[in-house]
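Attaching the record inline, Q. Sequence:
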Amino acid sequence: MQRRRFVGRVLAMAGGAVGVLAARQTAKAEGYDASKHTFGMGVQVDKCIGCGRCVEACKTENDVPRDPFFTRTWVEQYTIRQNGEVVVRNIDNPQDDVPAPVQAREVMRSFFVPKLCNQCEHPPCVQVCPVGATFKTEDGVILVDERRCIGCRYCIQACPYGARYLHPDSGTADKCTFCYHRITRDLLPACVEVCPTQARIFGDLRSPASPLTRFRRMNKLTVLKSHLNTEPKVSYSNLDGEVR
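Structure, as predicted:
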């Protein structure tokens, strides 16, 4: 009986600490009506310079652990050699295998691709969560209720984009939220705000005046892993066919 009381107190204390962060990340501005919005993001691949400012801003804004393998957004560098070989590395993760130096004459093309949660219209992560901790908001953003998450990792395994991780402090799933606490107050996500080349474009898909609406109208767009029919709300322009 004493053991049960002790475990109960520990869980209550942990739940309280986690609840503070969860409340911050899902907090909405007073008067905000989610039914009037559908948020999305566009990425102009040819504008990304691989500076990593988006990753740094995300970690600072959302209290993401500083270790490089914990991340809500990341940038991959693709190097395509003349022989057709494709080399991919995460520019922020020194744990990745560092490929042998490539001579300039061996490179056919090289570019950077920012990645994040795709905020799917049909999210596999929501389908597999056994306790309903992962859910889709009325405005189309996928969030995690850390007070309900049991850390089973089902959603992490189900995500086809590798966009989730288990937070080492809370023991719960974590992911990009489009900085939900910001966008419901008419602010941009941190990654969008700091991008020096405006490679990331954020907006409301329901608004004809949104920069994202113009971006989608003026560009030929691609989504990642379209064959899975998850209907991502993150789309890319000028995306090379080698990107997965």
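Residues 1-22 have pLDDT under 50 and may be disordered. The two ends are 52 Å apart (CA to CA).

More tomorrow.
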